[in-house]
Amino acid sequence: MFYRSNRDKWVAAIFDPLTGKTMTRSARTKADANRLLREMRNRIDDGAPAADSPLTLERWCATWLETRVGKRRSPGTVNQYANGMRRYVLPYLGRRRIDQVTAPMIKDTWDQLAARSLSYSTIKNAHNALSACLHDAVRENRLGVNPTQRASLPTNAAPAKRPAPPHRAKFTT
Description:
The chain is mostly helical. The chain is 46% helix and 10% strand. The protein contains 5 helices and 3 strands. The protein has helices at 30-45, 57-67, 75-93, 103-115, 120-139, and strands at 2-4, 9-16, 21-27. It has a 3-stranded antiparallel beta sheet, covered by helices on one side.
């Protein structure tokens, strides 16, 4: 921590191992700068970046789908991820900053989808897409931990609708 006389501010500085950068925050008083430094240390200790990220889930998802996921997944998987994110995840969580998406928020989203009578497999596919998206955010140091790892899927989701086996199908003429 140091005093910047040309701006009449105290500056709290800390190295963030997630981003590999030194993060700084300034305050008018030394006490406020100490508080900011403690907050940044606590965030780092919790496995999160020292400073908040203004990146929304919607923006990160768009970047992720355009530039990252297609390099490691088949076109069919990319299409399924994009569809799941667009239809089921982003309407509920898209405007949130990625560092503010929590496991309870994700669980609430899955419960809302289950209340709409969506099948377990549909919700699971949306969960897998969100999990892969946030996993890459963690790998790129844009997020401290992946909250999908702590979010459980609903048990009351509708079972997947499967066609009747051929020997039980009724044929009409």
